[in-house]
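Structure (tokenized):
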């Protein structure tokens, strides 16, 4: 037992190191976890005997439900709602088209039976949220025309459709289905999954806003229980547990309750561990010595996915909207990475009551390996070649990222001709004790580290520091971009019709961000940051 614990510690340490190494060389970290699993597999350097596919299925199911839950938790509805229709269609119709075309390719090119071919297509039809998020965030890829939010919502929400198709095809493979039973499976998966998920989400938000946890950390345990319940309850009655988990996560992630930031820190690490677990286990149960016969079918199916199925699905869904150009559709298609969900669904197909004639798991293993290694590594290159990188966009804003690197905040004050600080000593400014004047940038560019005897001059830029506000849950900051036809364009801030109900605290104009005043004239494409909790005494 002691040796086993030492081995676990060694594996985790290696995973942490690989995370940094793969980031520096531009290879997706999840690929490293697969290779690490192979190294510790039955035929690896330090073999760990493990070939229990049924146990692997249970572990993978639990890990995937947390990945789905946190995928929803990290989805910013304010950003996602602009692309929710397109993403929803990609997550449903797009997945069905991908599964159908891939299944047809499998049938005609590999000569598999129709049911097994469509089962294979369903297993690999969804894109992997963990891989997509990892590439976007690690490379800080800001993409044009709301591409990042579209990919975020699509990759985070398309697993339920793939799971549903897989469940239907597995039932058909067992030969005990009829048109009525298939219709019932589809109905129960969607309706029970959505309705129960919404009910659990409402109860969870109600509880988070009213419960006061006496011991630190129990709020995290509460959310863990909610995540498990969001999958288990609908799954018990034939509903889609992954759909429910995603909906509950998204509603909780966009709700306002205390200590959300701490929950994000917890789930960042916990979900990362789940991703490591799935990909490491994939490598662990893989059989490299017997996979020679799966490489060619995997290459053929990957080519069908990459060059035919995914592009046609993206084109069929997005072209009718008329606002997604060819280059953008190519990039969205390119970023259809396969990963954790395909692994889980392949294991499901392997441990069913009727085992497929072909080794679906080994083929999927190779497809995932090729997808992460080839597509994942080339995404930054493809984005540059397609001219889809927006240097001014911050992809981290796409996600519900509540984390902060520091609790210290810095602000800048420009000393104008009529400023009350002009020509005063620092010690006479009356600065509160919990604030510090850090540096003064003179009009000629000189930088001065001030003390009490330093004079403040006209044209100085004074940099102040203070502690960040801990009551963030009491703020309701919303972002609004002014369209060219917005009635606010050309008006002064004091003419804002809701100035007594909201407070305009910041304006972003192009690459410039500034604090407005009453005479500030608002322009088209300005991004306004409004505090909706503000009240007025006037």
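Design, position by position:
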């Amino acid at each position: 037992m002691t040796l086993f614990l030492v081995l676990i510690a060694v594996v985790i340490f290696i995973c942490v190191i690989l995370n940094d190494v793969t980031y520096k060389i531009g290879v997706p970290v999840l690929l490293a976890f697969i290779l690490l699993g192979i190294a510790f597999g039955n035929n690896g350097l330090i073999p760990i005997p493990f070939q229990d596919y049924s146990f692997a299925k249970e572990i993978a199911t639990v890990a995937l439900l947390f990945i789905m839950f946190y995928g929803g938790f990290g989805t910013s509805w304010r950003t996602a709602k602009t692309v929710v229709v397109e993403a929803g269609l990609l997550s449903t119709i797009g997945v069905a088209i991908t599964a159908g075309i891939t299944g047809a390719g499998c049938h005609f090119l590999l000569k598999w039976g129709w049911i097994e071919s469509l089962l294979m297509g369903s297993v690999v039809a969804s894109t992997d949220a963990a891989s997509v998020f990892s590439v976007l965030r690690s490379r800080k890829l800001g993409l044009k025309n709301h591409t990042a939010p579209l990919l975020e919502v699509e990759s985070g929400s398309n697993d339920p459709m793939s799971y549903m198709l897989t469940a239907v095809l597995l039932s058909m493979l067992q030969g005990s289905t009829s048109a009525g039973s298939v219709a019932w499976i589809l109905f129960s998966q969607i309706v029970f999954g959505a309705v129960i998920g919404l009910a659990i989400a409402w109860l969870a938000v109600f509880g988070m806003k009213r419960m006061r946890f006496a011991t630190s950390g129990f709020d995290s345990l509460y959310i863990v229980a909610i995540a498990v319940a969001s999958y288990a309850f609908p799954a018990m009655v034939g509903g889609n547990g992954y759909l429910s988990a995603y909906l509950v996560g998204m509603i909780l992630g966009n709700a306002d309750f205390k200590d959300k930031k701490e929950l994000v820190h917890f789930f960042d690490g916990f979900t990362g561990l789940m991703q490591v677990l799935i990909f490491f286990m994939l490598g662990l149960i893989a059989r490299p010595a017997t996979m020679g016969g799966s490489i060619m079918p995997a290459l053929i199916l990957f080519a069908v996915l990459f060059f035919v199925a995914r592009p046609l699905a993206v084109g069929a869904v997005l072209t009718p909207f008329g606002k997604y150009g060819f280059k953008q559709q190519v990039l969205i298609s390119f970023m259809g990475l396969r990963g954790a969900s395909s692994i889980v669904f392949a294991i499901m197909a392997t441990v069913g009551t009727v085992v497929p004639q072909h080794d679906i798991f080994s083929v999927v293993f190779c497809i995932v390996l090729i997808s992460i290694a080839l597509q994942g590594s080339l995404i930054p290159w493809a984005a540059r070649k397609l001219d889809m990188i927006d240097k001014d966009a911050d992809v981290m804003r796409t996600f519900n990222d509540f984390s902060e690197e520091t609790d210290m905040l810095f602000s800048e004050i420009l000393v104008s001709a009529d400023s009350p600080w002009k020509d005063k000593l620092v010690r006479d400014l009356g600065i509160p004790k919990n604030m510090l004047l850090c540096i003064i940038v003179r009009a000629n560019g000189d930088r001065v580290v001030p003390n009490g005897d330093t004079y403040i001059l006209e044209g100085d830029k004074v940099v102040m520091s203070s502690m960040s506000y801990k009551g963030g849950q009491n703020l309701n900051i919303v972002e609004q971009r002014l369209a060219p036809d917005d009635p606010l364009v050309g008006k002064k801030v004091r003419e804002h019709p809701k100035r007594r109900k909201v407070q305009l605290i910041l304006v972003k104009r192009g690459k410039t961000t500034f604090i407005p005043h009453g005479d500030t004239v608002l322009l088209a494409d300005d991004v306004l940051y409004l505090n909706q909790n503000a009240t007025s005494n006037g």
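Reviewer-requested clarification: Confidence is low (pLDDT under 50) at residues 402-406. The first strand starts at residue 408 and ends at 414.
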